[in-house]
């Protein structure tokens, strides 16, 4: 009875604590969502541009894109965020910490998007690109109308993984003083000493976003699967 | 590589095409050089190109200080890998086992630690557990979260490897009378482990990156050592650049090894 009473009291106090700090928590969730969506959105654009450069006939663009990917795939995200947030002010580039976080996530996730788009392009059978070339489509025409729409199917799952990486990476922005959900819950944790409930809140936010992203990815994958739209015959299964 | 779509996106260019490519190449080189020059100018305009702010990183004591950090990074990464990789293999086997209880535990573990940030796990050891009177040395406050998170990721790597072993190998093992356990231990696993070796090296790169969270727990690894150095020299951008470059070089080497290994295996698979 003692312990049960204790648990109920703990729960009541925890709920009261959450209620008192609701605006702060909501703000933290908002920052986490904003960091993730902005970082991932920009990364998709940047990564696609880099991938197009990577397969283009212009050597310097291919090299530049390759060098970019090697650098930003191999730098730890935390090092990158610290460099941007605390290093760049030294060279006169002052960004608000939130945008430092978005920039870091974009630069880092962009490299992974580029790699996945490129390997997605490589999954398209070579005959399709040849056929597109032979009916007179140019570099951009082949990419835009034949290769990329097909490559997109193979890219959905890897891009979902990049999304989850961005969700998880956004937590590191708390190390550069962005008041996202990890920062908020740990600050409240230190103030109140109620660790369990704070970890539950933060964990729920991240798991919810990761699983939500994965579920959305599944929906998109089915929607773009061959035959899924009913407009074309299902492609023969390759063994 | 000869039959990938990227090879045929454009024709072998004619004289006109070659001229256009040359022109575009020159333009893009100029654009890239312009970007780099603008970056350097920004450094110069703020006095950050002053040689005095850079040569300190060639002084023996500074290098020794950073080397100490690098040693810490390597120690932490190795310790985490030594525990996390075998543990990941066990998790993968549990996830593929016939016992539904084992499967459920493994799946929960894997999905949980793949879905939450490692920083949160670090905070659990740094802030939450001490409140319950459980404290660890700083080394373990960093290494245990790394193990937990990496074990979940490597479990998926091993699972993919086990699934990639040809079905016929299971059947052949069963045909010569090996039990399920023996077949796994002496036929499937040796092949699976070889298959996943490149992915394991990439998991090592991830561990090395995760070790930067020593910055949060104040363990003397490279990123934290950089922070300490900054508090002495006040050369923020220089220190953090040097630290980042060290990470990039190490990870680049590891990635290269993984790719070379992967290419060798593919070549061998084609040859046999």
Provide structural commentary.
Chain A has 239 residues and is mainly α. Chain A has one domain: MetI-like fold (Orthogonal Bundle). Helix content of chain A is 79%, strand content 0%. Chain A is built from nine helices and no strands. The C terminus of chain A is likely disordered. Chain B has 272 residues and is mainly α. Chain B has two domains: 34 residues; 220 residues, MetI-like fold (Orthogonal Bundle). Helix content of chain B is 81%, strand content 0%. Chain B has eleven helices and no strands. Chain B is flat and about 75 Å long. The model of chain B has no long low-confidence stretch (mean pLDDT 89). At the A-B interface, helix 3, helix 4, helix 5, helix 6 and helix 7 of A face helix 1, helix 4, helix 5, helix 8 and helix 11 of B.
Give a short overview.
Chain A has 239 residues and is an all-alpha fold. Chain A has helices at 2-20, 22-54, 59-74, 77-87, 97-123, 126-134, 139-170, 181-192, 195-224. Chain A is elongated.
Architecture blueprint of SSEs:
The complex is a heterodimer of chains A (239) and B (272).
Chain A: H1 2-20, H2 22-54, H3 59-74, H4 77-87, H5 97-123, H6 126-134, H7 139-170, H8 181-192, H9 195-224
Helix pairs in contact in A: 2-3, 2-5, 2-7, 2-8, 3-5, 4-5, 5-7, 6-7, 7-9, 8-9
Chain B: H1 15-45, H2 52-55, H3 60-96, H4 100-115, H5 118-131, H6 138-164, H7 167-175, H8 180-210, H9 214-217, H10 222-233, H11 236-271
Helix pairs in contact in B: 3-4, 3-6, 3-8, 3-10, 4-6, 5-6, 6-8, 7-8, 8-11, 10-11
């Amino acid at each position: 009875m003692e312990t049960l009473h204790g648990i109920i009291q703990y729960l009541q106090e925890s709920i009261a604590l959450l209620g008192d700090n609701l605006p702060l928590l909501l703000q933290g969730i908002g920052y986490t969502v904003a960091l993730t969506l902005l970082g991932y959105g920009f990364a998709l654009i940047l990564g696609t541009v880099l991938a197009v450069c990577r397969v283009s006939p212009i050597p310097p663009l291919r090299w530049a894109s390759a060098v970019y990917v090697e650098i930003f795939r191999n730098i730890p995200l935390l090092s990158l965020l610290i460099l941007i947030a605390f290093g760049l002010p030294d060279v006169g580039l002052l960004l608000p910490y939130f945008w430092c976080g978005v920039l870091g996530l974009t630069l880092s996730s962009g490299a992974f998007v580029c790699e996945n788009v490129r390997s997605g392009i490589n999954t398209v059978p070579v005959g399709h690109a040849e056929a597109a070339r032979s009916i007179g489509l140019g570099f951009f025409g082949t990419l835009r109308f034949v290769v990329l729409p097909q490559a997109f199917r193979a890219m959905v799952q890897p891009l979902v993984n990049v999304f989850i990486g961005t969700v998880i990476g956004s937590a590191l922005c708390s190390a550069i003083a962005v008041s996202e959900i990890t920062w908020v819950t740990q600050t409240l944790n230190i103030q109140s000493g109620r660790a369990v409930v704070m970890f539950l809140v933060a964990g729920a936010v991240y798991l919810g976003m990761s699983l939500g992203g994965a579920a959305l990815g599944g929906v998109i994958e089915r929607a773009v699967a061959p035959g899924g739209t009913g407009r074309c015959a299902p492609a023969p299964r390759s063994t | 590589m000869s039959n990938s779509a990227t090879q045929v996106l454009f024709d072998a260019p004619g004289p006109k095409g070659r001229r256009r490519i040359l022109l575009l190449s020159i333009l893009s080189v100029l654009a890239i050089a312009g970007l780099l020059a603008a970056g350097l100018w920004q450094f110069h305009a703020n006095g950050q190109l002053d040689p005095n702010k850079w040569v300190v990183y060639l002084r023996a004591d500074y290098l020794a200080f950073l080397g100490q950090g690098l040693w810490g990074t390597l120690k932490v990464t190795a310790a985490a890998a030594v525990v996390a990789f075998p543990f990941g293999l066990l998790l993968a086997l549990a996830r593929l086992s016939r016992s539904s209880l084992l499967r459920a535990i493994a799946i929960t573990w894997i999905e949980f630690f793949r879905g939450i940030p490692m920083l949160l796990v670090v905070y659990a050891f740094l802030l939450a557990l001490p409140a319950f009177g459980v404290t660890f040395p700083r080394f373990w406050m960093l290494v245990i979260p790394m193990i937990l998170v990496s074990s979940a990721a490597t479990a998926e790597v091993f699972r993919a490897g086990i699934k990639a072993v040809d079905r016929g190998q299971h059947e052949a093992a069963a045909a010569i009378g090996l039990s399920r356990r023996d077949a796994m231990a002496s036929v499937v696993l040796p092949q699976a482990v070889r298959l996943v070796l490149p992915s394991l090296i990439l998991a090592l790169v991830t561990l090395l990156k995760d070790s930067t969270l020593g910055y949060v727990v104040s363990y003397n690894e490279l990123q934290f050592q950089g922070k300490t150095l900054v508090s002495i020299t006040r050369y923020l951008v220089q220190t953090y650049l040097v630290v980042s470059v060290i990470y990039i070089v190490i990870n680049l080497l590891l990635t290269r090894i993984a790719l070379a290994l992967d290419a060798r295996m593919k070549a061998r698979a084609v040859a046999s």
